[in-house]
Design brief:
It contains 9 helices and 15 strands. It is an alpha/beta fold and 295 residues long. The relative contact order is 0.19.
């Protein structure tokens, strides 16, 4: 593929609030993916919803400055999503969050754009699983299941995926390999398991490929996994050699660990945290985006 690949990221966003620093940073899996895929050489667009508040304006402006198309970004009444984070020795810890207006279903205009892209990226935090068959009919699907390793969920999602990704930090190599093979056998063309400092595994029809992590003294690991996934997706769409793709992804993820926030763009924290929920509360209470009437 001689031209730049085109990727649309659909779904979740947040501002990551660092209370100890009194700073907030733009983030969220799909926002991060749009930025990191663009940095990896893709043309990218982001579709999501924010509010006309300080947090929403920060997300929008950061995306524009990073070269991401925001023409389909929605501005809704309410509160932009946020996540409260603490860092200890460079490692992130999620304290609480509120999803605000971030959970949306695609509009007819959003769906009409899909054939113009080589892939759409979304994930568990976007709550649009019911739309995956529709997405997959229009373009390739990249999906981040993060820490969800449940076989039933994999069986539901993987058949629609060109790339399915997992966060496998703390798993053994054998466990990570079994997870990736399960997702590939369930229908994903490629499965990726990132393992933090232990590297990553990429599984596809061509076999199993493995990367070691690039050692760095991390400032903040937030966004490293998203960097890895985005860089791998761009490389796969270009049909590059898997080992070369993984080497680029490891280097890019290491570089992300040298920056505070997922991809920088700090601003003074200006978020009402009075409605903060624990992550367990969020996953119990969050309803998926409205499902399509016809799948």
């Amino acid at each position: 593929m001689s031209r730049a690949v085109r990727i649309l990221a659909f779904g979740d966003n947040v501002v990551d609030c660092y209370r100890d620093k009194d700073l907030m940073f733009p983030g969220g899996n799909c926002v991060n993916h749009a930025v990191f895929a663009h940095r990896a050489g893709a043309e990218t667009a982001y579709v999501g919803a924010v509010c006309d508040d300080d947090a929403g304006r920060l997300i929008r402006q950061a995306l524009i400055e990073e070269g991401v198309d925001v023409s389909s970004l929605r501005i809704e009444p309410g509160q932009t999503a946020y996540c409260v984070i603490e860092t200890q020795d460079g490692e992130r810890m999620f304290v609480g969050a509120h999803l605000g207006v971030s959970i949306i279903a695609p509009s007819a205009k959003d769906l009409a754009r899909l054939p113009d892209f080589d892939a759409i990226h979304t994930g568990r935090s976007s709550h649009v699983d019911a739309w995956l068959p529709r997405f997959a009919r229009a373009t390739k699907v990249s999906y981040d299941l993060a820490t969800v390793h449940d076989p039933a969920r994999i069986a539901q999602v993987a058949p629609h995926c060109f790339l399915i990704a997992f966060s496998g930090g703390g798993t053994s190599r054998d466990e990570a390999l079994a997870l990736g093979r399960r997702a590939h056998a369930a229908g994903a063309s490629w499965s990726l398991v990132t393992r933090g400092v232990e590297g990553a595994l990429l599984i596809g029809e061509a076999g199993v490929f493995e990367a070691t992590a690039s050692p760095v003294k991390a400032v903040d690991t937030l966004g490293a996994g998203d960097t890895f996934i985005a860089t791998v997706l761009v490389g796969l769409l270009h049909r590059d050699q898997p080992n070369a793709i993984l080497a680029r992804a490891a280097a890019a993820a290491a570089d992300t660990c040298l920056t505070s926030g997922a991809f920088g763009h700090p601003a003074p924290m200006s978020v009402d945290l009075s409605n903060m929920m624990t992550l367990d509360e969020i996953y119990r209470a969050t309803r998926p985006a409205e499902a399509p009437q016809e799948v």
